[in-house]
Amino acid sequence: AALPGREVAGALGGHYVMAHRGVELAADAPQLLAGWHAARGHGRGALKELLAVDPAGIVFLDLETCGLRGQPLFLIGLATLGEGDVELEVFLARDLGEESAVIAAAAQRLAGAEALVTFNGRSFDVPFLQERARYWRVPVRVPPLHVDLLELARRRWKHLPNRRLQTLEREICGRRRAEDDVPGAEI
Prior knowledge:
single chain, alpha/beta, 6 helices, 26% strand
């Protein structure tokens, strides 16, 4: 089911925003946050740094694009954790003319973040976002701490047949995607 949204007009034009509190993980949020606080001081490297950050200062980022580098992006998904809640914001460019406005809206949200969490974001999402932002001359500040979960998964779960997000969700988190979930290739 699609999230309800609203039209937003900004300095760079209009776009569509779908915002939702209490998304899929909301029921697990108190348990996730308790685990987060219990894990503080553990881990190594970037993961240890991430665990030291207040969860409210972390932004989770995912992009949907029209293909290879140099092509437009049409959707930026951002999630944040609050005490006992998850907030999801989806910035949708319904046509090429709205891409700059979507990038500007996401850049505004990223500006105040202490940390960024992505899955394959160091290799794909962040460079792609920065390239499209340069194209539109929209300044984007990436938080100083960036944790790419794919890099961590490649080191930690070598025994799995692959480190695709769906595999990790199923094998490590015990979660299965909904039957009506749209495969990424079809987006």
